[in-house]
UniProtKB/TrEMBL annotation:
One of its GO terms (molecular function) is glycosyltransferase activity. This is Glycoside hydrolase. The keyword Nucleotide-binding does not apply. It holds the Pfam family Glyco_trans_4_4. It comes from Mastigocoleus testarum BC008. Keywords: Glycosyltransferase, Hydrolase, Transferase.
Amino acid sequence: MNSRTEERIVLISVHGDPAIEVGKEEAGGQNVYVRHVGEALAKLGWKVDMFTRKVNAQQDDIVEHTENCRTIRLKAGPTDFVPRDDIFDYLPEFVDNLLKFQQENDFTYPLIHTNYWLSAWVGMQLKQIQGSQQIHTYHSLGAVKYNTVNKVPLIANTRLEVEKNVLETAERIVATSPQEEEHMRSWVSSEGQIDIIPCGTDIERFGGVDKAAARAKLRSKAQTVGNELKFSLDEEIVMYVGRFDRRKGIETLVRAIRKSNLFNSPNLKLIIAGGSRPGQSDGRERERIENIVDELGMRQVTCFPGRLSQEDLPLYYAAADVCVVPSHYEPFGLVAIEAMASGTPVVASDVGGLQFTVVPEETGLLAPPKDVEAFCSAIDRIISDSQWRDKLGQAGRKRVETKFSWNGVAHQLSDLYTEISNITPADAPSLIEK
Ligand code: UDP
């Protein structure tokens, strides 16, 4: 085969489409990560192809994000939404179509960065078939996740095996926090090479507006929120944003607010934001949470604005007094750094990547997962001391600026790609004959 080696970076994210809207059941941090890493790498001079699975016939096969960064959707199984635990059987077709795409374009991808275990399997096949080098980011570890759920899916053993194999065979694993590295070592394998490169956030998009201005803007849009929330300056706003998934621990937050000293104040407001689809698992979780809200007599203080658009999200973060991330487990947790970038303190579960991003007593507070009392007192402490709250918010902003900007993250990944492959971004646009 007279094929050339195309000096591109390939990001594979089988179930997390980087071009899709986030905030729904299966669209969350991974989609955001892949998209922002891709776009930031393109700014550094790489040509970036991001492969994902096509989930409906109306979707474009190729989405151009910027001149050097695109999403390519491949057929694998039905052109329909398939829960991630049911995708594995369609992966051979994904690999075939990726190989076909290369063939049609007459190039071979030398370096592949895979995301989540499904893509890890795809990457391992490409490594075997054509000697591509592989970098892998887990986003979630089966061994840790299965420890926090009551029902383990049928696919569990396959996933655990793939996660072990990729750790031992990839050129490099990217852990997004020291906690995740530690989990890989204690739960997955002592073999394989791991680098720590965190997730990032857009420090210009988040943090560009202060609380008063954010509330004023949201006030003018309030008819679309349609509830008791006024976004007035005297409201104490506690916010959750993210997917509706039981493991996100939204119930803990709701119960904590019910117990709060401030509960009887007319100013306390709880926002629970995120998309959901009736009848799907996120829709069912939202319904469950709404029922708890009703049972606890909290309707008047609680607002469900649905999925927040990219435009509104920074305003909501800036408008909130405290952002709560009550997950049972979180490998990284983008929401925490987005809130911190917006100058808003975070109360988070004392787990996983949240132990890395949130510095207790400096940028927010940590509480044991599922511990209603602890979340309640942490939220109350911050809400009742506005000076301290502002100080925590400022320190959070600073921490994100120095440690978690997408550009900084992309630079670190770029250096890693070069170290492994000898390709530099300056070479990236060129095509080399094999
Ligand atoms: N998100 C959003 N709109 C919403 C809810 C969530 O844009 O209505 C985004 C949020 O800003 C974050 C991502 O979805 O970037 C969630 O990532 P995180 O790592 O916190 O959680 P995951 O979804 O990966 O479990």
